[in-house]
Design a protein that fits this description.
heterodimer, A: mainly alpha, MetI-like fold, 2 domains, 16 helices, 71% helix, 0% strand, B: D-Maltodextrin-Binding Protein, domain 2, four-stranded mixed β-sheet, 22 helices, signal (chain B), Putative aldouronate transport system substrate-binding protein (chain B), Bact_solute-bd_prot1 (chain B)
Chain lengths: 327, 528
C-alpha cells in the first residue's frame, strides 16, 4: 500500500509537470509577451531599487557605485533635514495643489470631450476635432514652453500684444512670471496638451455600448441628456474607475496628464518659484546640481511612499463603492 | 454576442491604455538612457587608443562650462599648440552643470577635466593625480610660484590644479598694461539717445536713475535698462561699496561675515527695487534662462542701457554695425558713486585636472608645462606671434585684431585654450589703446582692493558647511527676486530681513564661525 501511493505520487508529479509544460507550450506566445514585460520591470524598476540604500547613508558621488554599499549609515538624517527645510511647507503645498488641480480639471475633461464627440453625428467634423485635440500630445514640453513664451511673454508675447492692441487690458499680463498664475498655467496647458489623447480611451468605451439600448431609450421617450445620463455614462463607468485609480497612483507626478516635473522645471523661474517649486524639481536640483544624491534619494522615497499609500487606498475604496478595481 | 462586444471594447480600451502607459514609461527610460549614452561616449573616448598619426597623441578633455565658446580643437592656435607639444585634444563641452557630477558618480572621466564649479570636488586623490607628484616624476623643470601652490594645496598636502586668470596684487601692480579681464561688470548706454537728451551727466547713482526716467518718458516703447542674466547685480553692488557678490564673504576689522549681512547691502536692494517700481527694468529679466535675450534687446534698438561686462559697448557696437544699424553704445564710467569699491578676492577662474583615468599622465603634465611657459601663455592668450600680434617694447602685445570681435577670437581659438595661464597675460589681452573696454578696466583698476585671502575660505565637498552654504545660496537666489520685485520699499526691506532670517535659520552663524576659523588659519599665506 505504502509503496503504491508513493509510486502513484511520483507518477502524479511527473504527470503534472508534463501537463504544465504542455500548457506552457500552448501559451508560449503569451508567455513571451509577459516575459518581456517582466524583464523590462526587472531591469528598469527593480534593479535600480538598491539605490534606495543611499537615502539612509552619507553617500559621496566620488566613491562611485561601490560607495552606495560602503558609505556610512546615517539613519533618518536626510529625512529629518527635508522636514526641517525652510521651504518644506511651500514645496509640499505646491506639489499637492498642482496634483489636486490636475485631478480636478484634467481628469473630467477627456470624459466630457468623449461624450460630446460621441454625440456628434457629422463624422468629418468629429474626426477633425479628434485629430486637432490629440495632436498637442506629441509636442514635447520643452517645445510647449517655447511656444508659451512666444504667446504669453509680457513684452513680445502675441496674446499680450493682441489684448493690449484691442484695449482689453492696459498692462501686459505676466502669466509666465507671476506666482499667482503658475498653477493655472500648468493646469491649463496640461489639459490642453493631454485632453484629446485620453479622449481616445473614453471614446472606445462609448463605442462599446450596445446601440440597441439607445434605441430602446429613445422609444421610451428619453431625451439626449437622459440617454447620456442613463446609458452613456454608466457604460463608461468601468473604464473611468480604472483610469481614476491609475491617476491617483501617479497623482504626485501629475496624474493622468503627468508632467508635474516638466512644467515646474520649464515654466518655473526665480520669480514664480514660491508656487512653482515642487518636490520633484527640488530633489532634482539638490541631487544632480549639488551632488547630494543621498538627500535627493530620501526626498524621492518619501514621495514614493505617499504614492503607494494613495494607490492602495483608492483601489480599496473603488472596490468597496463601485465593485471594479485594479487588483 | 452583444454582451461580448461590450467586453471586447472594454478589453480593447484596456490594452490601448496599457500600451500608452508602457510607452510613456519607455519614454521616461529613454531619457535616462540618453544621459547614460552621453556619459558612455566620453568613456569610449578615454579607452580609445591614442591616434598615432605623426606621433600626435590625442587626449580627451571635458570642459565643465556649457557656455564655452570653443567646442572643438581647431583654429590656428590649437594647431600651433599641437605642433609644439604633439598633443591634440578631443573636446567635449558640458551640456549642463550636472554632467560632470554625473560623470564623477559613474566613474567615466576623460583624460583631462577643465572646471571652475567643481574644483573642490575634483581635488581628490581618488579622482585626480596630484600635480606635485607628476611634476616631481615627469617634469622637474615645471616651476610654479609658491603663492599659487599654496592657494591650491588641499588638506592632504597635494595640489591637483592651478587656476588660470589669477594674479597677485604685486603682479598686477608691476604690469601696468595688464588691465584686467573681460569678466568684469560694465554698463553700456546708447550714445545717440544720450545726446538727444542733452548729454545729462551720469556721475552719481541718482543721476543715472534720472536719465533712465528721461528715457522712459521720451521713449515709452523702450526698455530703459536690460541686464544679462549673469550680470544683473555686480555693477551696482560695486557702486554701493558692497565688498563681494551675494554668495561671497566680506571682511571688516579682521572678521569675516557673509556678504548679505553687509550694512551696504540693504541700500543696494532698495535701489534695485526702485529700478523695478519705477518701471526701468522688466520683471521678466529675472526669469531669463538664456543669455542672448538681453543682447537682442540691446542690438535691435529696444533698450537704452545694457548691463553686462566691460566689453559690452565694443561687442554691441560690432553687432549693430554688422546688422547695418547706425547707433552706437558707450560705456558708463566704471565708478558712478563716491563709495564705489571692488574687492578682488578671486583665486582665478578655472583649472585643469589630470584624472585617474588619464592614459598618459606624463604627456599631460608636459602639455600643461608647455602651456605654462612664457611662449605657451602668449600663444594661447594672444594667438600666433607675427600672425596675430607682435611684442611692443613697452611690455604689451600689439594686437592685429580686435579682441572684442568674438567671432574672430573664437574661430582662431584665441584665449579659450587657457588650460593654464595667469591673470597678468589675460589682463594684457584687454589692453587696446583707445578701446572703451580698456578705459573701463583702467578706471576699475584704480578702485580695486585685493583680498585674495577671502578666496581661501573654501569648502570641502560633502562637508556640512558646504551643505549649509549651498542651501543659503539657493535660498538667496529665490528670495532676492522677492526683494527686487517688491511693491513698496517697506515690503522690500521686510523681504530683505526675511532673507537674512532664513539664512540664520539654515545655519549662517555656524558657517560664519567656520569661515572665521579658516580665514585666521589661511590669511598668513599672503602676508609673508
Amino acid at each position: 500500500m505504502e509503496l503504491d501511493t508513493r509510486v502513484t505520487g511520483i507518477k502524479g508529479k511527473t504527470e503534472q509537470r508534463t501537463q504544465f509544460w504542455k500548457r506552457f507550450k500552448k501559451q508560449k506566445t503569451l508567455h513571451l509577451f509577459v516575459g518581456l514585460g517582466m524583464i523590462f520591470l526587472l531591469v528598469f524598476a527593480y534593479t535600480p531599487m538598491f539605490g534606495i540604500l543611499m537615502a539612509f547613508k552619507q553617500y559621496s558621488i566620488s566613491t562611485g557605485i561601490k560607495g552606495i554599499f560602503t558609505s556610512e549609515w546615517v539613519g533618518l538624517k536626510h529625512f529629518k533635514e527635508f522636514f526641517n527645510d525652510y521651504q518644506f511647507g511651500t514645496i509640499v503645498r505646491n506639489t499637492l495643489a498642482l496634483s489636486l488641480l490636475k485631478i480636478l480639471f484634467a481628469f473630467p475633461a477627456p470624459i466630457l470631450l468623449a461624450i460630446l464627440l460621441s454625440e456628434v453625428k457629422n463624422l468629418k467634423f468629429k474626426r477633425f476635432v479628434q485629430t486637432i485635440s490629440y495632436l498637442p500630445h506629441f509636442i514635447s514640453w520643452v517645445v510647449v514652453a517655447g511656444i508659451a513664451f512666444a504667446f504669453l511673454s509680457t513684452d513680445i508675447g502675441m496674446v499680450n500684444k493682441a489684448l493690449l492692441g484691442l484695449g482689453i487690458i492696459d498692462k501686459p499680463l505676466d502669466v509666465l512670471t507671476n506666482p499667482n498664475y503658475f498653477w493655472g498655467l500648468a493646469t491649463g496647458s496640461a489639459v490642453w496638451k493631454e485632453m484629446g489623447w485620453w479622449t481616445i480611451i473614453f471614446l472606445a468605451a462609448v463605442a462599446g455600448i450596445n446601440p440597441s439600448l439607445y434605441e430602446a431609450a429613445q422609444i421610451d421617450g428619453a431625451g439626449r441628456l437622459a440617454r447620456i445620463r442613463h446609458i452613456t455614462f454608466p457604460g463608461m463607468k468601468g473604464t473611468i474607475v480604472v483610469v481614476l485609480i491609475l491617476t491617483i497612483g501617479s497623482i504626485l507626478g501629475g496624474g493622468l496628464v503627468g508632467s508635474n516635473f516638466e512644467q515646474a522645471f520649464l515654466f518655473g523661474n526665480s520669480i514664480n518659484n514660491p508656487t512653482s517649486e515642487i518636490v520633484q524639481t527640488y530633489a532634482f536640483k539638490v541631487g544632480l546640481r549639488d551632488g547630494r544624491f543621498s538627500y535627493a534619494a530620501a526626498i524621492d522615497l518619501i514621495q514614493s511612499i505617499i504614492s503607494v499609500i494613495l494607490i492602495f487606498s483608492s483601489n480599496y475604496i473603488a472596490k468597496r463603492t463601485s465593485g471594479s478595481s485594479l487588483f | 454576442m452583444k454582451r461580448n462586444k461590450g467586453k471586447k471594447a472594454l478589453l480593447l480600451s484596456l490594452i490601448l491604455m496599457m500600451t500608452i502607459a508602457l510607452m510613456s514609461a519607455c519614454g521616461n527610460n529613454n531619457d535616462g538612457q540618453k544621459e547614460n549614452a552621453g556619459v558612455n561616449n566620453s568613456a569610449e573616448t578615454t579607452s580609445e587608443p591614442p591616434a598615432k598619426s605623426n606621433e600626435v597623441k590625442e587626449l580627451s578633455l571635458f570642459i565643465d562650462a556649457s557656455w564655452y565658446p570653443v567646442k572643438e580643437w581647431k583654429g590656428t592656435v590649437a594647431e600651433k599648440i599641437t605642433e609644439k607639444t604633439g598633443i591634440k585634444l578631443k573636446v567635449t563641452v558640458a551640456t549642463d552643470d550636472k554632467q560632470l557630477p554625473l560623470m564623477i558618480a559613474s566613474g567615466d572621466l576623460p583624460d583631462l577635466v577643465f572646471t571652475n564649479a567643481n574644483i573642490d570636488r575634483m581635488s581628490d586623490s581618488k579622482l585626480s593625480y596630484p600635480w606635485n607628484e607628476l611634476i616631481e616624476k615627469y617634469a622637474p623643470d615645471f616651476k610654479i610660484d609658491p603663492t599659487r601652490i599654496a592657494i591650491h594645496t588641499m588638506d592632504d598636502g597635494n595640489f591637483y590644479t592651478v587656476r588660470n586668470s589669477f594674479a597677485t596684487q604685486e603682479e598686477v601692480a608691476n604690469n601696468k598694461y595688464s588691465v584686467g579681464s573681460d569678466g568684469n561688470p560694465g554698463i553700456a548706454v546708447r550714445e545717440d539717445i544720450l545726446k538727444e537728451l542733452g548729454n545729462p551727466p551720469i556721475d552719481t547713482i541718482d543721476n543715472f536713475i534720472k536719465v533712465l526716467g528721461m528715457v522712459k518718458q521720451k521713449y515709452p516703447d523702450m526698455i530703459p535698462l536690460i541686464m544679462d542674466k549673469d550680470w544683473i547685480e555686480q555693477y551696482f553692488l560695486q557702486q554701493f561699496g558692497v565688498e563681494g557678490l551675494l554668495d561671497g564673504w566680506y571682511e571688516r576689522d579682521g572678521k569675516v561675515d557673509y556678504a548679505i549681512r553687509q550694512p551696504e547691502m540693504l541700500e543696494f536692494f532698495k535701489f534695485m527695487n526702485r529700478l523695478y517700481r519705477e518701471g526701468y527694468i522688466l520683471a521678466e529679466n529675472f526669469a531669463y534662462t538664456n543669455d542672448q535675450i538681453d543682447d537682442q534687446y540691446a542690438t535691435s534698438g529696444k533698450a537704452f542701457a545694457h548691463s553686462h561686462t566691460v566689453s559690452i559697448a565694443d561687442m554691441d557696437n560690432i553687432k549693430v554695425k554688422n546688422a547695418g544699424g547706425s547707433y552706437t553704445f558707450q560705456m558708463l564710467p566704471s565708478a558712478i558713486s563716491k563709495s564705489t569699491k571692488a574687492v578682488s578676492s578671486g583665486l582665478g577662474f578655472a583649472g585643469t585636472f589630470i584624472t585617474k583615468k588619464n592614459k598618459d599622465p606624463e604627456a599631460s603634465i608636459k602639455f600643461l608645462e608647455y602651456l605654462a611657459s612664457d611662449e605657451g601663455k602668449k600663444l594661447t592668450m594672444f594667438g600666433v606671434e607675427g600672425e596675430h600680434w607682435t611684442w611692443n617694447e613697452e611690455g604689451y602685445p600689439n594686437l592685429k585684431y580686435d579682441p572684442s570681435d568674438a567671432d574672430f577670437v573664437n574661430s582662431n581659438g584665441i584665449k579659450w585654450w587657457y588650460l593654464y595661464n595667469d591673470g597678468v597675460m589675460e589682463g594684457m589681452l584687454s589692453y587696446v589703446p583707445g578701446a572703451q573696454k580698456t578705459k573701463a578696466l583702467m578706471e576699475r583698476k584704480a578702485f580695486t582692493v585685493y583680498k585674495p585671502e577671502l578666496g581661501l575660505i573654501q569648502l570641502q565637498p560633502d562637508s556640512d558647511e558646504k551643505t549649509i552654504k549651498t542651501k543659503i545660496d539657493e535660498m538667496i537666489k529665490n528670495e532676492k527676486v522677492k526683494i527686487y520685485l517688491a511693491k513698496s520699499e517697506e515690503e522690500a526691506v521686510a523681504n530683505y530681513e526675511t532673507m537674512v532670517k532664513n539664512a540664520e535659520k539654515i545655519g549662517l552663524d555656524r558657517l560664519v564661525d567656520w569661515a572665521n576659523q579658516t580665514y585666521q588659519k589661511k590669511k598668513d599665506l599672503f602676508n609673508k
